[in-house]
Design goal:
Order of helices and strands: HHHHHHHEEHHHHH
Strand content: under 5%
Helix content: 55-70%
Strand order of the largest sheet: 1-2
Number of strands: 2
Length: 328
Amino acid sequence: NISLGLICAAVSVLFFGSNFIPTKVYKTGDGVFFQWVLCTGILLTGTVCFLIQCTMGASCPAFEPLAVLGGAIWCTGNMMVVPVVKTIGLSLGLVIWGSANLIMGWASGKFGFFGLKPESVPNPALNYVGVVVAICSLVLSVFVRPTVGRGEPEGDGEDELGFDSDDDKLEQALVPPGAADFGQGVINTDGGGDTRSVLSELEHVAEADQQELFLTKLPRWQQQIVGVTLSIVSGLLYGVNFDPPQYIVDHPADFPGAPKQPVELVFSHFVGIWMASTVYFLAYAVYMRNKPAVYPRVILPAIVSGVMWAIADICWFIANANLQFVVS
């Protein structure tokens, strides 16, 4: 169904290009906590999709471990998004990783990378023209000078830690026993109201902010090199994340009982995304000695971002089935 494929492709373009906007004005720190919450939103959407498929079909789609691998690949690329946005900005980052994603995904379908069945199109010349335009876009984008600011706006006039003034910091540090909200992180004091404990937590928030600013303290040309490199690597990983599910569809004899339609592999794919993000977050928590930088204000925006991305990805699965892998 070409019409369905084009509609789903358009929805994918819309949401893939805008899903990070809800989080742009919120602190994300080093991005590890942010990506874990985002991936939780993805899994929630995938679960709803799975339940709908179970209700509408004769049985629930089979769970395929190979599709889980595709999700883990995507999550690895997604870990680079926050450093990219902080170094070269969201717009330029999207252009670069989107172009690399397009080129890698097209090459996978066209030449049959990683065991996929090579695909052909009715008008190869037009197909190649589209790829050349994408390559030109990628090359030109590398030389664009980013204009991302040194700081990240919070939208409420607060300073880096979320306080309005030094007096607010002192007042917050000396609050009575209970829960004190230090701007970006919630700090719980003990029953005795130990001020030293609160100040220790405040120092940890400050250390987390310093880690957040590490990349932005690099010289501008170094930031651009780091941002462009991470964008390209991220795009390449995005470009191959559909290959494992597509391999299952292309080789039904090797996967008896596997779903015949790519969209039926969405839940397995999303489980892989969430599992990988959880592993990365746990490893990060161990590295941070059980004091990961957590930013509560970004939780709901990150969930919304994850839901938007998941809708786009589901539509892309449908587009892959209706427009051919090499086209979509």
